[in-house]
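Input/output pair, single chain:
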Amino acid sequence: MNAPSKPGSKADRDALRHDMAIAGCALADIAIEMRTRFKMRPREAWRHAHGWTLQEAADRITQGSARRLGESVAADASLVGKWEKWPGPSSRRPSLSVLFAMAEAFSCRVEDLLDLEDRRVLPEADLHLLTHRLSTTDPSDTPATASSIVAPPEPTGSNLVRLAADESATWAQWAEASNVGDIALEQLMADTRSLASDYLTSDPVALFVRTRALRDRVFALLEGHQYPRQSTDLYVAAGYLCGLLAWMSSDLGQLRDAETQGRTAWLCAELARHNNLRAWVLSTRSKVAFWDGRLREAINFARRGATYRTTGTVAVLLACQEADAWSELGAQDEALAALAHAEDARAAMSSEDEIGGIFACQPARQENYAAAVQLRVGRHADALRSADNALVLLAVQPVRAYGTEAQIHISQAAAHLANGEAEGALEALAPVLALPPDHRLEPVTRRLSELSTSIGRSRASGTATIGLRQAVEEFCVHSAPRHLALSPGEGSP
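Output:
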């Protein structure tokens, strides 16, 4: 059984137009019914009264304007859609020439295409011209004929000078207005910092919902009007929020969606020309590529991010991520060299991080990367020392990131296992295995799965080894990515 169509669907519009035409209703009556029944803007209602697509309307508007000397309009489907939505979001104000061309195409009066909302935001100069036209039009003229739609004559002399001044004043009022203030921008960045920090300790799905909502607010503001410097600040906020959504999507096992968020974050960083954001976005994309098995891309993203002059700890994290990918490829020299670069970047830091939280690389996080890299290149004793040091550093941090702490314990366990110490590995994993399902992120479950695979190759044996493998398997069954994959979608009952 087919689902019922939504009110205002093409089927509904076609049925309404057909019924009203059979009943002998005029086009104006059909347009009014379209507006009231389906909550349409007047220009959209007139188009649907004719039954035209956006492109069909664009063709007729262009053709109609060609007959008006000096007032030709080049319309396309996208422009018609934006003219119809005005003054709403993602719209464009139709000029008087456009309105006259539309009226000729739709066989209506210009005033039929404007409602009260339109008139309230129409530039004063345009409203003056329309009023002048109405006052000079013979009421007996037939509104539905093209000949009745005549633009007012161009003003001359002092009227022309006064009109030009009015037009400039109208534009100045628009340019001076803004839909966001400096305090609101400051609050948006503060909210972004809170989300980036809360993500280290909170339920990732709940944080994802909050981050998406804040991103949508920023996107909506960007569709309005603000000063160029305010637009730049909004692009920076949008870039960090999309980067945060990319990081979260990756941690939830949704790598393709994470890559999409990363590309949008990169666009925002480029539009803002913000080097710190560029570097953090490339760090995020390196992380996504790493867990997607695209190790060469992960290295390239990390190296590209390191080319920007930045402040804070992003250069440290980029070097750690490069080392991570090299070690996974088995390139020991390159991996250890990248770890050394991370140390150099730490020493060269010039200021604090702009956002912090997940967009920061504290010493404990750096040691966590070092432990994982050293494990892969066979330096088990060094790995154990780095993991132990990381836990000491983590204990003195104001915020303890459960994801980082879990990976540190996994490195500890892997080092013990490599030395044939199954009991030590099981003890090291105890805090990890106690994590609630919502905190069992994809990097943690993946590293635990790798640990489970290595159990069979280790020198350890006995009941501790069997118990370790069973505990890891049970942990991975009840993970955040698995729960997300099994959760019902929007269309499910």
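Residues 1-6, 138-152, 489-493 have pLDDT under 50 and may be disordered. The chain has 24 helices and no strands.
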